[in-house]
Amino acid sequence: MTDTIPYGQLMHRAMRGLMRELLIDISKIGHLPGEHHFFITFDTTHPGVDIADWLRARYPEDMTVVMQHWFDNLVVSEDRFAVTLNFGDQPEPLVIPFDAIRTFVDPSVEFGLRFDSHEDEDEMELDDVPESPMMVIEDEEDDEPTPKGDAEVVSLDSFRKH
Fold it and tell me: What is the Cα–Cα distance from 139 to 143, expressed in whole angstroms?
C-alpha cells in the first residue's frame, strides 16, 4: 500500500459498479422506465471496445451513444456491457468496457458521472466539474464549495454517527 489512500480510484470503481448494477437491472426489465435515457460517451481506442469499422472510422477517438426507446441484446458482464443500438435504421452491436466510459448521463433526472482520464489523480477540483449535470458529493465539515451547472449535492452529514 502507498502512503496515501487512492480515493480517486476507489470512487471510479464505485461509480462503475453503480453503472453495472443499473445496466443489469435494465437488462432484466428490457426497457428504461419512464423518461429515463442515457448518454454514454466512451473512448473508441480503449482495448476491448468492439464497434463496427464504419463507426470507428467516423468516431476515431470517442463516441456518444444514446440508450432510450430502442435497444436490444443488452448483456452485462463484470467489466463490460454489450448492446445493439440503432444507427439510422441500421442495428449495430457494441461492446463497451466500463473502463472505456468517460461520461454517463441521464438528463431526465439531471444525473451524471464523469471519469477522469488519469486514474492516479485522487482529487477532482470542483472548478474542473463540467457544465453538464453531474453529481457532486461534498463533506459539510469542509468549506462548502459552489458546484457549477445543475449539480445535485449530497450531504454526508446524514450518514455520520452522532
Answer: 8
